[in-house]
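Why does residue order matter? Because the sequence determines the fold. Keep that principle in mind as you read this record.
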Amino acid sequence: MAEPLAQRDSPAVFPRAIFLACSWTWVIGMFFPVYLVAEFGAMGWVAFAVPNVLGSIAMGLEARRVREGFESEHGRAMRAFSLVTICFHVAFLSWFLAVCASKNQMVKQGYVGPIIALVLFTIAWGLARLGMKQLRTAAIGAFVLSLLCGMMAWRTSDTINLPPRFGPRPIGDLGAALPILALGFFRCPWLDLSYWRVRRETPGRAGDLAFILGFSVFFLAMIALTLLYAGAMAKGSYSLYILVHIAIQSVFTIAVHLRCRADSRAMFNPNNRDNARPVPLDWSLVFVVALGLCFGPIDWLPEYRPGYRPTRMAYELFMSFYALVFPAYAWIVMRHWNLPSRTRTRTWLFTTGLATPMLWMGYIEKHSLWLLPTVGIVLLAPLIARAVTPRSDPPFAA
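Structure:
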């Protein structure tokens, strides 16, 4: 189906490709491989990178065939996705920067991280008040600065190195985790407002090329940098330049989600080209930011089990949204499955509740085989619901 928002001018592919890469360079792409490399070596990064890149490209190519009105139908879920993402970034910056500051003998206070995180959020909020054209320009600056930070870290420290191919955990555990990694990275992009913004503003082959270049070149460069510093960071060693890189990309990602969330109800209106609307500090946004700041002193709490820091547990609980809650919604509710909307929503809620204990056992408790039935339940749920529910309207592509 034709995309409804063809621009009058020829859309610039490269700025949009870089915009996509930087908007997707989260505290997931910049830090999740640290845990994977520590446990599985470089193979952990490969298991992370391949579905991540392919899933994002696949969404961009497939979304051009989705019917008009699809985004507004699921706009509430997309805005919730942005809120959780903003909260995740604020929380991560709060505890991560607090832990980094605590390594300095002159700085031991747990409030340092939240203060810096609040300053970075304020910068992001100011950046979000720009229109999308200015944000695309800012993306180029963020990308270049991150590359420069990587080069400076390589020249001034020994924290940039290739990790060993394998790690201490059995490779079979990584194999058991591959399906849930694929589920998350192939379905979460469907809820990202920045993806939809670029896809609708860049129709046809230009949009396809923006997604292909954005993720196979520019985003891959960002997570390749993560691979190079992951081994050292897993051992508690890092360069100040890498912290600056994480701060820059986090600020940009937060700004993009603030901008797209503010524009979400009108962002697909062809008569409103730039949608430079105010970015209100509504109660939901204030709540998630305040909640994220509360995570600053979390590393001073007792360990859940020996060697399992509270910060890692908090990180992996946030990751559960992107491993189960959001991908299950994208798979069960956003696809039609020849089921009524209410039935799909109920199936999603029931499936998420049923799969959560299995995800806990597989991800938090590290019994990786439990991750397989977690994915199986999600994939089979709409088929089972369709088998026991009278047929509805004909399906549409999604």
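Residues 204-234 form the longest helix (31 residues).
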